[in-house]
Amino acid sequence: MKILFIVDELRKLTLAGDTSYALMLEAVARGHELWTCQVGHLGLEDGEAWAECLPTSCKEAELFEQAFACGPSERRALSDFGAVFMRTDPPVNVEYLQATWILDRARGKTVLVNDPRGLREHNEHLSILAFPEFIVPTIVTRSQKRLREFLAEQDGAIILKPVDGFGGLGIFLARSGDPNLSSILETSTQDGRIWTMAQRYLPAAKEGDKRIVLVDGDPIGAVLRVPPEGEARDNLHVGGRAVKTELTARELEIIAAVRPTLREYGQILVGLDVIGDILTEINITSPTGIRHISKLDGINAATPVIACVEAKAAAL
Predict the structure, then answer these.
(1) In 3D, which of 49, 48, 51 has the Cα closest to residue 40?
(2) In what helix (H) or strand (E) does residue 104 lie, and over which residues does it extend?
(3) Residue 3: its pLDDT value, please?
(4) Are 130 and 138 contacting, i.e. CB atoms less than 8 angstroms apart?
(5) 3 state SS of 107
(6) Residue 13 to residue 153: CA distance in whole angstroms
(7) At 143, which helix (H) or strand (E)?
(8) CB atoms within 10 A of CB 82
(9) Which mean pLDDT values do the consecutive 10-residue runs of the chain (316 residues) have?
(10) Each residue of 96-128: b (16+ CB within 10 Å) or e?
(11) What is the DSSP string of 278-314?
């Protein structure tokens, strides 16, 4: 079948660790026809969603010029594709929201990974609030006064995240007595103009943040991302180290709890973030981890993703 990947510019992909690239390679290896475009190439005509997209070949390589080759652009209805992967990086801004409205018009005509309704309605940070038994004390506020109060309530250490953040950007560890505290709170809330998520700090974060990749609600593997010395963030692109790991009984409980919601909203490829058996994020926009799991576990973690999409496309 034809598979369309809506991604950021191909030349910007970090090939060694990029999940979209891994999925493209697997799709091609399984005989599918690969097409790519960016989110700005989507449109509607006569109520039909379409894209100005490029036929794309890809192979395993270290450099963009060797990895990809693209043909001339063609306008194609999204219903021409067996599956459409929406894999642009956050933030979920107005452009992204409008793209989900366009993708809505293709629901039921192609397999959407992930379904735009879920992309729109489940903020990656706030969606954990539906599972209070698995999270730490959490608030969302614009108020610096409330953040100071919450900091005192949580024994003097909290993590601050922008509600629409991604990739570790804008995350702060705030501690009582830090001479930079006022500046941190001003920056996090943009002086009261944006909402900030605050959570009790987990000392287990020093040991790593586990990314669990789910396909249609079932785990296919996990990678532990260990932060470098002196760094509060463990994201791999800021120096975090990928370490082989296994799932715990508690993590299997978390997976079982979130599975029905993920399936209800058509979220096929999902990344759960867990620190010390505490759920911290549910990543649905462009979850990563496939390349690292594949390398650490000696498997091709992209295989169950494409196999799942094939089965859903056959059932349409």
Answers:
(1) 51
(2) helix 94-104
(3) 98
(4) no
(5) strand
(6) 42
(7) none
(8) 20
(9) 97 93 98 98 97 97 94 98 95 93 98 97 94 97 98 97 82 95 96 96 93 98 87 58 96 98 97 96 95 97 98 97
(10) beebbebbebbeebbbbbbbbbbbbebbbbbbb
(11) EEEEEE-SS---HHHHHHHHTS-TTHHHHHHHHHHHH
Phi, psi (rounded to 5 degrees) for 258: -85, -20
Domains within the chain, CATH numbers bracketed: 2-114 (3.40.50.20), 137-201 (3.30.1490.20), 204-305 (3.30.470.20)
Sequence-distant (6+) residues with CB within 8 A of 294 are 22, 221, 300, 301, 302
CA distance 250 to 116: 30
Distance CA 159, CA 173 (A): 5
Q: Give the three-class secondary structure for 99.
A: helix
The model's pTM is 0.94
Q: Are 312 and 111 in contact (CB under 8 A)?
A: yes
Q: Which helix (H) or strand (E) holds 55?
A: strand 48-58
For the chain, the distance separating the N- and C-terminal CA atoms, rounded to the nearest angstrom, is 13
CB within 8 A of 111, min separation 6: which ones? 82, 83, 84, 268, 309, 312, 313, 316
How far is the C-alpha of 62 from the C-alpha of 32, rounded, in Å? 22
- Tokens encoding 65: 């010029």
Write the Ramachandran bin of 289: left for phi over 0, alpha for psi from -120 to 50, otherwise beta: left
CA-nearest of 79, 86, 60, 82 to 8 is 86
Burial class (CB in 10 A: 0-12, 13-18, 19+), 263: middle
* Beta-ladder partners of 43: 50
Inter-residue contact 2 to 32 (CB < 8 Å):
yes
User: How many CA atoms within 13 Å lie on the side-chain side of 295?
Assistant: 13
